[in-house]
């Protein structure tokens, strides 16, 4: 298949692009950035199956649609995500331009070209923080951040395009992804505590958190497993539903993350301070049961394996990764 991945140099997008290319698909990556050495190294042997198109979804004057080849499917992973609490209002316009208006442009591309399927990569943040232990796909949307609000709007727009027959649309709502290639970029400011604490530990710094943070939990899912799920949603012949949660399906505390990083890197001590608020917030688990039933997908990477892979990748970076400070 010929598949477009928007935001294909971003954290989730580059994993999806590599996974699809490794499976033999011809992949076109659309991203506003140009590939760096870290992207080339990560794509490795499949780089020859990946075509790069530099474009900005938020720029109405950029006629990027005319530079794309023939396509069978689209994975729309471009987004401004996530926004740091306290500064999110400064990026509200950019979030709307990319997450909402940019999504409409991609949906219109699929409609005009008669593309068979579009997978819209979304987030569990669209559900907000309901007082439940587990969230399935029928849960009403109740976002509480600008990021969640813009992604919820994009979800609803994408589903409407699908309902009126413009194209077949599938929405993938991700739990907290983590793993190699997670980096601070112009479109991604707040990172997972797995990344932030691993970077600090490798640098020999103290791992920082406030009292009580270690017992906070959420649903972490390894980004390689996310890529596998999204690829299945893009290429499987028939799907019973139009919205799927992509998650590990288990609550993991920050204490578990801390213990595994210390086990991999060494005891660097404990400092004062805290990880960023969005990372430290308690969130319910997303149920992955529907995706397992319909596509046979189940997360296969446990926290030990995921942290080990993250630490190993961070240690390969040239120069050493810059620490995210809060």
Report what the structure shows:
The chain is of the alpha/beta class and 326 residues long. It folds into two domains: 2-178 and 220-246, 3-Layer(aba) Sandwich (Rossmann fold), CATH 3.40.50; 193-218 and 250-284 and 302-317. Helix content is 36%, strand content 17%. The chain contains ten helices and 15 strands. The protein has helices at 11-22, 37-43, 92-113, 146-163, 193-202, 223-235, 254-265, 277-280, 289-295, 303-314; strands at 2-6, 26-31, 50-54, 73-76, 117-123, 134-135, 168-174, 176-178, 207-208, 217-218, 220-222, 243-246, 252-253, 270-271, 285-286. Strands 3-2-1-4-5-7-12 form a seven-stranded parallel beta sheet, sandwiched between helices. A two-stranded parallel ribbon has the order 6-15. It has a two-stranded parallel sheet with strand order 8-11. Strand 2 (26-31), helix 2 and strand 3 (50-54) form a beta-alpha-beta unit. The radius of gyration is 19 Å and the shape is globular.
């Amino acid at each position: 298949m010929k598949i477009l991945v928007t935001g294909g140099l971003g954290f989730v997008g580059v994993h999806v692009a590599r996974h699809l290319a490794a499976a033999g698909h011809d992949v076109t990556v659309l991203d506003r950035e140009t590939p760096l050495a870290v992207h080339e190294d990560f794509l490795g042997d499949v780089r020859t199956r990946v075509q790069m198109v530099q474009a900005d979804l938020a720029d109405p004057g950029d006629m990027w649609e005319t530079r794309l080849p023939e396509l069978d499917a689209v994975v729309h992973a471009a987004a401004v995500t996530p926004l740091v609490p306290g500064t999110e209002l400064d990026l509200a316009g950019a979030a709307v331009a990319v997450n909402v208006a940019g999504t409409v442009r991609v949906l219109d591309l699929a409609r005009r070209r008669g593309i068979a399927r579009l997978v819209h990569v979304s987030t569990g943040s669209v559900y907000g923080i309901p007082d439940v232990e587990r969230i399935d796909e029928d849960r009403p949307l109740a976002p509480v951040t600008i990021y969640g609000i813009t992604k919820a709007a994009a979800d609803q727009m994408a589903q409407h395009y699908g309902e009126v027959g413009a194209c077949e649309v599938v929405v993938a709502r991700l739990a907290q992804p983590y793993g190699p290639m997670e980096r601070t970029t112009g479109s991604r400011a707040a990172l997972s505590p797995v990344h932030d604490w691993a970077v600090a530990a490798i640098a020999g710094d103290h791992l920082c958190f406030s009292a009580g943070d270690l017992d906070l939990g959420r649903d972490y899912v390894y980004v390689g497993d996310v890529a596998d799920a999204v690829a299945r949603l893009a290429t499987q012949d028939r799907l019973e539903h139009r919205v799927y949660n992509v998650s590990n399906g288990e609550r993991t505390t920050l204490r578990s993350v801390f213990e595994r990083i210390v086990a991999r890197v060494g005891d660097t001590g404990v400092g004062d301070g805290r990880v960023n608020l969005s990372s430290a917030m308690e969130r319910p688990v997303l149920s992955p049961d529907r995706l397992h039933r319909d596509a046979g997908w189940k997360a296969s990477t446990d926290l030990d394996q995921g942290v080990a892979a993250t630490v190993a990748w961070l240690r390969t970076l040239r120069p050493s990764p810059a620490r995210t400070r809060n």
